[in-house]
Design goal:
By secondary structure, the protein is α/β, with parallel strands linked by helices. The chain is 44% helix and 15% strand. 42% of the residues are buried.
Length: 333
């Protein structure tokens, strides 16, 4: 009810911070007659303050908002709404991955040994509960747990191939968020395109298919997912199609393997899932819509988390997980 989806300012072309905040206020203002408290889910790196505001640390996925870094989301939104004559209540800012974890808690029907938040969509990130005493930079006593947004998309430990390096070199933020560029929905289509171009240059495709591949400038992940699932582009002969499916499926399999390793790393660090299952709350279009990613992720988790580590887990996914979790964060006070 009253769900309104709009393009992210700065995604297609550069935007100013004031434009972004004005856009958010436009979305929120009509709802203030129904509720005063606001949950603000921001899918980019932020530092959460004790007042539950969020300081923008940076932007990813080539989003460009001038003046965003160093600004406080909650304070800016409050100022904009008050300038419009509104009187908002409490504003709680959080990242979409902790919001997804909270949605898992809100939707949980059984007793879980722990919770993990996973976003596998345009971006890729994980979140978990860590005992405070284990977080050295906090310098606080143990005994309590807190949600930690791991920003795992910035992990640089996965081995990259020539196509990864070539794509990254052509992006304005070369060298940043290396893992996300290898495994997330924002980039998988392009990684496949770069790989196909290299394969064509090495003679793996027919002359006609190579001409088609060479003309490609940007291929989105849903299109690649269709090709890898058997809905082929025109101009590819039977051998071309075999090679096309093989290459695409290998890249999606790699993405699933990397995501599984992130989840298994969390299970190892937290020790959860030995006696009772862990709830892995998942949000994102790559997980829910890709025909190639989800089966592979579940297969790798069965092998690595289940058979090798002996851990129990359950994926929990519903529509608008981050929205549910953001509402839960506001209600938690």
């Amino acid at each position: 009810q009253s769900l309104d989806k709009r393009p992210m300012p700065g995604a297609d072309e550069s935007a100013e911070w004031s434009e972004f905040i004005s856009c958010v206020a436009d979305c929120v203002q009509p709802l203030l007659k129904q509720a005063q408290d606001i949950g603000f889910c921001f899918s980019y790196p932020i530092e959460i303050t004790p007042e539950c505001d969020g300081k923008v640390l940076g932007l990813t996925k080539q989003v460009d908002i001038k003046g965003a870094v160093g600004s406080y989301l909650g304070a800016a939104l409050r100022a904009e709404l008050e300038a419009r004559g509104e009187h908002p209540g409490r504003i709680v800012v959080l990242n979409d991955t902790p919001a997804t974890l909270l949605a898992g808690k809100a939707l949980a029907k059984g007793g879980y040994d722990g919770y993990i938040g996973l976003v596998a969509g345009t971006g890729c990130n994980t979140c978990c509960e860590i005992e405070c005493g284990r977080i050295g930079k906090l310098d606080v006593p143990g005994g309590r747990k807190m949600l930690v947004n791991l920003e795992s998309g910035s992990f640089a430990g996965f081995a990259r191939g020539d196509a990864d390096l070539a794509m990254d070199a052509d992006l304005p933020d070369t060298g940043e968020y290396v893992a996300e560029k290898m495994i997330s929905g924002r980039y998988l289509g392009q990684v496949c395109m770069y790989t196909l171009k290299m394969a064509a240059a090495e003679g793996l495709f027919s002359e006609r298919a190579s001409e088609i591949i060479e003309k490609m400038t940007e291929v989105v992940t849903p299109t690649i997912d269709k090709w890898g699932s058997g809905r082929f582009p025109k101009g590819f002969n039977s051998e071309d199609r075999v090679n096309l499916v093989y290459i695409i499926n290998e890249i999606f399999e790699r993405s699933a393997r990397c995501i599984a390793s992130m989840l298994c790393g969390i299970l190892e660090v937290t020790g959860a899932g030995e006696a009772r299952p862990v709830c892995i709350a998942v949000d994102g279009s790559l997980y829910s819509e890709s025909k190639l990613l989800r089966p592979e992720l579940e297969r790798f988790m069965d092998v690595y988390a289940g058979e090798i580590m002996g851990r129990r887990y359950e994926f929990v996914n519903a529509e608008n997980m981050s929205l549910i979790g953001t509402a839960a964060a506001v209600l938690l006070k």
